[in-house]
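2024-03-11 09:14:02 INFO worker-7 job=invfold-0412 stage=load source=structure_tokens
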């Protein structure tokens, strides 16, 4: 598809946590549908309490290469969602460069494991500060520019299955992901008058570095009843990419399909909604 042909042609998307995983998939997908991209990521460890490998500058550079390969432009910068001033600066620079802001994907997040009555204050603070307060800072930094641009828009808040149900062993993560639902729904009411829609997505088990099978197995080994809260993905006979077989994990590109739908005109009646992206797993 030529870069100018997509449904998001002429639009601009701001994506946090865009160096790898789902954030990169969203950047590439929205660009392939015609949007220019403002991509930020911390590109270094967030806290000693996060045990999986951090994203790197090279990861963000790979996102830039992949977006540019679609023919769209990208402004990428190493920014921490715990730094409001830096978020505001990159939004201002992006709007200066690209002229407007239409789509926000508040995707940056971290995960760790432990029982709530045993975890350290640092473990609690890292997850809440990035996932909940970082989502608020993203909104605080970017929504005024979207209103100012005057074209309406779509805000996609990346929550989780843990934002809709109990997840013993990561209650701080669940608290943060339930918290962003409150932000989503209140913001939908606050910005509807500007033609801006706001929705949250709730993925379950996406194949990214955040998922640490050994950490989950350790928790389930210690507290076997917790496993009931983490149902396996149902069997999918034919996936959307035409490949057959059992896929326990979803791919980031499958989540990006949903983000592109929420960003685009096909979801124009949807605001203040929680969209499960879980192949029905939460119904178990
Ligand atoms: N992987 C899953 O199964 C799953 C399921 C549900 C929801 N989620 C959510 O999806 C989102 C994306 O996660 P992912 O699965 O792609 O994992 P990931 O670890 O690959 O990606 C998260 C990205 O966010 C960035 N980030 C973390 N803290 C940041 C900060 N303070 N400032 C800026 N960037 C920061 C990381 O550097 C990383 O590139 C997260 O919000 C996560 O909670 C993931």
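2024-03-11 09:14:09 INFO worker-7 stage=emit residues=284
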């Amino acid at each position: 598809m030529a870069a100018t042909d997509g449904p998001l042609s002429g639009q601009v998307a701001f994506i946090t946590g865009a160096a790898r995983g789902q954030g990169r998939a969203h950047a590439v997908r929205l660009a392939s549908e015609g949007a220019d991209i403002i991509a930020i990521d911390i590109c270094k460890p967030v806290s000693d309490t996060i045990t999986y490998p951090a994203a790197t500058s090279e990861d963000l550079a790979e996102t830039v290469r992949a977006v540019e390969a679609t023919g769209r432009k990208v402004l990428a910068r190493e920014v921490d969602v715990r730094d409001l001033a830096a978020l505001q600066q990159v939004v201002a620079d992006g709007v200066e460069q690209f002229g407007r802001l239409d789509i926000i994907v508040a995707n940056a997040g971290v995960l760790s494991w432990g029982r709530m009555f045993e975890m350290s204050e640092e473990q609690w603070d890292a997850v809440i500060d990035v996932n909940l307060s970082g989502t608020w800072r993203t909104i605080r930094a970017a929504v005024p520019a979207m209103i100012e641009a005057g074209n309406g828009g779509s805000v996609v808040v990346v929550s989780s299955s843990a934002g809709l149900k109990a997840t013993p062993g990561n209650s701080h993560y669940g608290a943060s992901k339930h918290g962003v639902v409150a932000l989503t729904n209140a913001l939908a009411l606050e910005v509807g008058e500007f033609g801006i829609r706001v929705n949250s997505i709730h993925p379950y088990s996406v194949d990214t570095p955040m998922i640490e099978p050994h950490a989950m197995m350790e928790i389930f080994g210690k507290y076997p009843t917790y496993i009931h809260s983490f149902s396996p993905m149902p069997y999918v006979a034919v996936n959307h990419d035409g490949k057959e077989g059992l896929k326990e994990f979803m791919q980031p590109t499958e989540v990006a399909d949903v983000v592109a739908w929420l960003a685009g005109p096909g979801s124009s009646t949807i605001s203040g909604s929680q969209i499960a992206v879980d192949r029905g797993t939460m119904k178990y």
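2024-03-11 09:14:09 INFO worker-7 stage=report msg="The first strand starts at residue 12 and ends at 16."
2024-03-11 09:14:10 INFO worker-7 job finished
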